[in-house]
Each structure stands twice: as C-alpha cells, then as structure tokens.
Specification:
Number of domains: 2
Bound molecules: 3-isopropylmalic acid, manganese (II) ion
Number of strands: 12
Catalytic activity: (2R,3S)-3-isopropylmalate + NAD(+) = 4-methyl-2-oxopentanoate + CO2 + NADH
Helix content: 40-55%
CATH superfamily of the largest domain: Isopropylmalate Dehydrogenase
Number of helices: 13
Strand order of the largest sheet: 2-1-3-12-11-4-5-10-8-9
Enzyme class: oxidoreductase
CATH topology of the largest domain: Isopropylmalate Dehydrogenase
CATH class of the largest domain: Alpha Beta
Organism: Algoriphagus ratkowskyi
Pathway: Amino-acid biosynthesis; L-leucine biosynthesis; L-leucine from 3-methyl-2-oxobutanoate: step 3/4
Radius of gyration: 20 Å
Distance between the termini: 21 Å
Strand content: 15-25%
Keywords: Amino-acid biosynthesis, Branched-chain amino acid biosynthesis, Cytoplasm, Leucine biosynthesis, Magnesium, Manganese, Metal-binding, NAD, Oxidoreductase
C-alpha cells in the first residue's frame, strides 16, 4: 500500500518520540511491503519560533494532503505563566483539530500485564480494564461563541454549544465501536443541569434503536469521575462532549498504571491524526530519556484506523508488549533495572519487527 504520512513532531520530547515511531513504521513498511513517505512540518511553540504562527498554513496543507498525521506533543513552559501571551502553542493544536475537522478523539485505556502492578488502584480493580473514550473534539465550550471578557475586564465567559449533527456523528462512532467490542455504551453528560447535555442524551436515545445489540447507559459526569476509579471495568465505550472528555481521559489514562503510555486517534471525515496522550515533558527534551511507547502505540492505532491494516497494528502492539516483558524500557518504567535510551528502545522495536 502507498502511504503518505505527515510528521508533526511539535515541542519538547515530541521530536524524539516521533523519531522512534518513524523507525517502527519504516520497519513495518519494509516487512509488509508498504511504500511509506514522510513529510515533516512544524506546529506549536516550534512553529511560533519559526514562523510566528502556532499552526502555519504550510503545515495545514501538508497535514490535509496526508493519509494520516503522526503528531508528537505541544507546549512550552515559556508560554505557561503568561496569561496575556497573544499566541500560545496550544492554539496550534486547537486550530489543527478544527481545520482538519477532527471531531472524534479516541482514547483507550487498557492494561499491560507487566505494568498493571504500578496502578494507583488495587490490582483487582484494574487488572483487565479495557475501555475507550470517544471525546467530541471540535465543538462545545472549547470553541463556542461568544467567549471573552466584558469591556472592564471584570467578567469572563465561555459558551458551550452543540448542534445535533455534531452529537450524532460522534455518537454513531461510539455505537459502532461498541458493536465491535463488549456492546456497552455509556453516554456521559450533565443532563440534570445543562441544556447541551439534555440534547446529547435525547440524541443518543433517538439513535439507540438503530443499534439494538448495544446496551446504552446514561451517567452524569461527576458520577463517572467517581466510578472510573472505583470500578473501571464497568465501562466499555464512553461518549462525551469536549471538556468532560478532556478531564476524564486524563483520569482514565493513569488508572492502568501505564501513565504516559496511552495512545490516541483523532478522526475526522477524511483526516486522521494519531498522537500520544502525554504532553511535551519539557524537562526531558533532548535528553533521549522520554518513553516513546505511547507514540509507537499511536502508530499502531494509525495502521488500524487510517489504513485498516490490523496485522501491522497488532505486530506493533506485540513488540511493545515484548519490550515491556523483557525490560527493554526507558527509565520511567525500568523499576530499578537497566534503563534504556529513547532511541535504543526505538531501535530495539524496529529490530524485533524485522527479525
Ligand atoms: C488534550 C490537551 C489539549 C486539550 C490542550 C493542550 C489544548 O489537554 O489533548 O487533552 O485540552 O484538548
Ligand atoms: Mn487534556
């Protein structure tokens, strides 16, 4: 297969972890006979430094033309404590999501047998957790208008808005995913308080009869925040709006003990982007110590979601599992054993694929 992949390494450890994913993707290409080309572009603080814009048009053109985008991380501490900064790296990410129409953010939480003992929760609660969030990504309070301040600057406001079609397209993805999994869908909302949430709930209720094999549960977001750590195995597929999904997926990403190891996909009508859930980890930038596995697993998701190549995807997850079992890992999960460099882990994974 011909594959044209855009690489957007971004900031901090982004470039290092993307390098490892590229090694792995190249190895898969070689093994399975795919012809893969990579085109690189800047985004985030790196883009502001280079062009003054967090998501330059040139980057958008490359991302839009690609079959898939592999994205590293965004964010630089020099912008964090300056609330008056006019351009912020994070705007690059939001603009990219919006301009590429990436309306569904797929964030799984699963366990690795060799890491599950590191969970902050009791082993019986997390062993075997396997859930996935479908977070709406281009609507809601992240983008709603009006937003801003009054003239005196003494009042600030954001607006949460959802149109029915935005809920329908996200919910359908959730239903379809549930049909391929354990057939349970949880609609996460705050329908006891918010009008947008009531539209979510009503819309999902209308769609449910089209998916008779899927059991649908409706749960308030505050209760989900609680039950997610009490009994995460209660969940299979969860669908929710942008802000709730932002918060809950951070919570979910650490319960399996694999902090920083979870991948994600952002899907649109034609564009697809894959990125690790973790951030830019600026303290580690350039040190060759960051864990590349979340980005490598995002590449695994790419083969599955962008190219429907399940075997390639599974081979990547398998070698990642092997590296964990054999302790060929970076310092964050070395557990007192030998800690390998970011680049060494990437080399090892690529070598495993090719041998
Ligand atoms: C995420 C991040 C972003 C978000 C930030 C960096 C804008 O937290 O991808 O979850 O809030 O969506
Ligand atoms: Mn977030």
């Amino acid at each position: 297969m011909e594959m044209n992949i855009a690489l957007l390494p971004g900031d901090g450890i982004g470039p290092e972890v993307i390098d490892q994913a590229v090694k792995v993707v190249k190895a898969i290409g070689q093994k399975f006979g795919h012809n893969i080309t990579f085109t690189e572009a800047v985004v985030g603080a790196a883009a502001i430094d280079a062009t003054g814009e967090p998501y330059p048009d040139a980057t958008h053109e490359i991302a839009e033309a690609a079959d898939a985008v592999l994205f590293g991380a965004i964010g630089d501490p020099k912008y964090d404590n300056d609330p008056k900064a006019k351009v912020r790296p994070e705007q690059g990410l939001l603009l990219m999501r919006q301009k590429l129409g990436l309306f569904a953010n797929v964030r799984p939480t699963f366990t690795f047998p060799s890491l599950v003992h590191k969970s902050p929760l009791k082993l019986d609660r997390v062993d075997g957790v396997d859930l996935v969030f479908f977070r709406e990504l281009t609507g809601g309070i992240y983008f709603g208008e009006p937003r801003g301040r009054n003239e005196q600057g003494t009042k600030a406001f954001d607006t949460n808005v959802y149109s029915k079609f935005e809920i329908v397209r996200l919910a359908r993805m959730g239903f379809e995913a549930a049909q391929k999994r354990r057939k349970l869908l949880t609609c996460v909302d705050k329908a006891n308080v918010m009008a947008t949430s009531r539209l979510w709930r009503e819309t999902v209720q209308e769609l449910a009869p089209e998916y008779p094999d899927v059991k649908v549960e409706y749960e308030f977001v505050d209760a989900v925040a609680m039950r997610l750590i009490q009994w995460p195995k209660a969940y299979d597929v969860l669908i929710t709006e942008n802000l709730f999904g932002d918060i809950l997926t951070d919570e979910a990403s650490v319960i399996s003990g694999s902090m920083g190891l979870m991948p994600s996909a952002s899907l649109g009508i034609s564009n697809k982007l894959f990125e690790p859930i973790h951030g830019s980890y600026p303290q580690a930038a350039g040190k060759d110590i960051a864990n590349p596995l979340a980005t490598v697993l995002s590449a695994a998701m790419m083969f599955d979601y962008a190219f429907d190549l399940k075997e390639e995807s599974k081979m990547i997850s398998d070698v990642v599992n092997q590296s964990l079992e054999e302790g060929y890992v970076t310092e964050d999960i070395a557990d007192g054993g030998t800690a390998y460099k970011t680049s060494e882990v990437g080399d090892w994974l690529a070598w495993k694929i090719l041998t």
